Amino acid sequence: MENGGVIQSISRQLQKAKRKIQNTIRTPSLQKTTCTALAFVILVHVYYNYKTTEVDLSVDNDVTKNKFGNHFTEEHKLDNKLTENKLKNQFSAHTVVTKKTNRPHIILMVADDLGYNDVSYHGSEINTPNIDLLAKTGVRLENYYVQPEGTATRSQLLSGRYQIHTGLQHDVIWPAEPRGLPLDSPIIADKLKEVGYATHMVGKWNLGFFKKEYTPTYRGFDSFFGFLNGHQDYYTHRTKFEQWSGYDLLENEKPADVEKYNGIYSTHLFTGKVIDILNTHNKTKPLFLYIPFQAPHTPLQVPDSYVKPYEGSIPDLKRRTYAGLVSCMDEAVGNITKALKVLGYMSNSLLIFTTDNGANEKDGGSNKPLRGGKSQYFEGGIRAVGFVYSKWLESTMAGTVSTDLIHVTDWFPTILNIAKGGTQGTRPLDGFDQWLTITKRASNKRDEILINIDPLSVAEGQPLFNNTFDRRISAALRVDDWKIMTGYPVNGSRSKNWNETYRDGAQNVWLFNIRRDPNEMRDVSDKYPDIVQIMLGRLEHYQ
Questions:
Q1: What is the DSSP letter of 351?
Q2: How far is residue 219 CA from its own chain's centroid?
Q3: Residue-level pLDDT, tens digit, the chain, 543 residues
Q4: Is 104 in contact with 67 (CB distance < 8 Å)?
Q5: So where are the chain's domains?
Q6: Alpha helices, DSSP H only, in 226-316?
Q7: How far apart are CA 350 and CA 409, in angstroms?
Q8: Phi, psi of 144 (to 5 degrees)
Q9: Considering the domain 448-542 in this protein, what is its CATH number?
Q10: Distances (CA, A) of 531 to 377, 389, 470
Q11: CATH for 105-440?
Q12: Phi and psi for 516 in degrees, rounded to 5?
């Protein structure tokens, strides 16, 4: 095709698309935004068709069936009725296929307090079609562990180091606390930036902000939009804690325009910001996009339109509202996935999805059939929803399940390996590069996970042995099939409530065989004292 033909082709497609949008979407501002976005897609499509003839005109039918909702204007501020009704842009978009480079775009999504039984591919009554589609066409991680609370998981995810090595082994970082993830070792954004990645973050930080050096744009991220604390109001973006209260929404290093964003639901707002980044990023440069969602963490706030579908199936109000938060987040995952496809990223992207810890069942989440939940060392608090999706996966691996032991610290060296980066300048890592284990079923490098040792939480009773780890100290460890818990089997300040609510007399040691008893119904510490002593020896080694 000659240059004139290219221009005529662009003009014809633009006019055709404009007519279709005007006939389908009645809001003028949304028409303008949609036309602009689609014009960009058509320009790229025609360019690649002209240059390389490598344009795939097909759209994945399963993805198309999952409605592309809440695609915002440049202000991400649709009127409330449109937002409430989850306006769908049902236009047929061409998928731009770009050549794979030796370094993929890396999209890292983190759900907040999503339980094991809160995704439909685990049998939940909550509908998560977009998460399911990615998980079932990627590699599902079904022996995958995180930490029992958010600060611990996020610190280990971004640093590759156990919390005993970062001073974060006791509790989350609460508002106004003068502590954070230490500056003595670079985090993943620092290392990816060193090898040429653009690094962006949208969502929840929760790793300290008592000095500016502890905030995202000083930790390797080119941009940050989100909040610094562990919780906030989904609409007003205010945080309340004890006597403190205030707005917690930042654009890079400055407070965001509160008037502009007040009233916009955070899952919608963050999704719009992610799509902004995808629209403006130069795809010739590898992209690292970190998306730690606020949802479905409390407070239980979500537009009614996401709750109504569950009115006939979930009688409990908390569970029903929580289901709405999860469904809204699932829709966001679908919108981001669609944008990755439409804008030409997906063929050269690696998408990692994880939760930060188990659900709090008192707030509507569910970890069934696992025992326990958020803040606890039982499986319900740390056995995580997680998967990897990528066109880089070999066809024989797509749609498979991995039962290899994998921990959240493993993402740091795994991502660096994929990005052709190195660990020079980092403190000793506790994570392992698991890429070949996940994608080629290679031998697993990990046979144990230190869940935690918290010397500030000490239970009642007496030491079991005098020459090894004191079982009164709150700790947990997994070695092969065995798992031991000592002291209070909960994280940080939650130990105050353990004695009153859960504790069985003066018991301060539990031993489970997770392969035989994944739901931890049978404590066998009395039956296998030799195993207990070996496991205590490993805890002593770490301490």
A1: E
A2: 19
A3: 444 444 454 455 545 555 544 544 444 444 444 444 444 433 334 333 333 333 232 233 333 333 233 333 333 333 333 233 332 332 233 344 444 557 999 999 999 999 999 999 999 999 999 999 999 999 999 999 999 999 999 999 999 999 999 999 998 998 888 999 999 999 999 999 999 999 999 999 999 999 999 999 999 999 999 999 999 999 999 999 888 899 999 999 999 999 999 999 999 999 999 999 999 999 999 999 999 999 999 999 999 999 999 999 999 999 999 999 999 999 999 999 999 999 999 999 999 999 999 999 999 999 999 999 999 999 999 999 999 999 888 889 999 999 999 999 999 999 999 999 999 999 999 999 999 999 999 989 899 999 999 998 888 776 666 678 988 899 999 999 999 999 988 875 554 554 444 445 567 899 999 999 999 999 999 999 999 999 999 999 998
A4: no
A5: 3-84, 105-440, 448-542
A6: 258-261, 266-280, 304-307
A7: 18
A8: -115, 135
A9: 3.30.1120.10
A10: 19, 38, 15
A11: 3.40.720.10
A12: -85, -25
pTM of the model: 0.82
Residue pointed to by tokens 């001073």: 167
Residue that the structure tokens 């005109």 belong to: 57
> Can you give the three-state secondary structure of 431-482, one letter per residue?
CCCCHHHHHHCCCCCCCEEEEEEEEEEECCCCCCCCCCCCCCEEEEEEECCE
448-542 and 105-440 share a CATH fold: no
Q: How many residues does the chain have?
A: 543
